[in-house]
Model the fold of this input.
Amino acid sequence: MSTGTPSFIYTSESVTEGHPDKVCDFIADSILDAHLKGDPQAHVACEVLCKSNNVVLAGEITSNANVDYQTVVRRAITNVGYVDQAEPFAAGTALVTNLITTQSSEISHAVGGAADASQLGAGDQGMMMGYATNETAALMPLPIFLAHRLSNTLACDRKDGRVSWLRPDGKTQVTVSYEDGSPKRVTRVVVSTQHAKDVTQDHVAQYVRESLAPRALEDWFTKDVVIAANPSGSFVQGGPSADCGVTGRKIIVDTYGGLARHGGGAFSGKDPTKVDRSGAYFCRFVARSVVSAGLARRAEVSVAYAIGLPEPMHVSVNTFGTGDDAKAERFVREFDFRPGAIIERLDLRRPIYAQTTNYGHFGRPGFPWEGE
Done:
């Protein structure tokens, strides 16, 4: 629905790092980082599928780095928390199948053939969007911001040992009521979390209502918030042991929770020559700049590329009536959207990508597109 509507209700979801799709994203980004650590010029497009005790690696990688995929995969799974060898999916027993090949020579020539790094061609065609809104200090929409807070708090409670019965898989959902275009109250929360066998649904609900939600939502939590905790009942079986995971299936979770358009490209496993990733990161950087400069309360920046060409096909900005579009357009056109310029400005050839995988690529400090 259009967020230009003065009063509306909107819901966004998040998932924990133990969700099957996120396990795949994290493995793919861990492989990307391993290559960039050894070869900053590596071209990486890594896809991952996880199911039962299988991890399948596929895609195209051209790199001078010598990466031990078995080690990287098992370390990533351990980091997520799947270490119980009594379960079908575990770091120590997973079967890793490697189907990775080198990048197509035609694509490699089109993208990397320029002598001048600033004239690097786009790694693919496509449209990318970036969004910012002043409704939170992080310049993120409130529903996705709070959904991520819930998921991240779940993970912290598990890893810190605060709640011994929590397991890695989980999903959250937050519904926010907007009035006059601004968030006014959280109305509903859904938390589904994997748990130990001896834990009841009532126990999960008590934890969510009395501990998790108040800490994660802070001032947005009230006694009137309707909470559904593990609405399906028991959630003992989770992660890739129970469900198939694939990279790139959580693109709305990764971005703005549906409160901005999306070009359709996923991020994880892709090096910065792939504009699906670097273009979207830069659009977020520019949208943040528009809002931070006071040119609009909300801004969506979009860009489109053709494979092999450095200059974008178009760049535009939409302030949704919250600012001066003409001034914002002039402001945005001062930014260099060529892929090579983006990579240099944001210093994107570093192994920073496994840090981005979980709880949103945007709205978290420490990334160059967030101002670091």
Notes: The CA atoms of residues 41 and 220 lie 45 Å apart. The first helix runs from residue 20 to 38. The two ends are 32 Å apart (CA to CA).
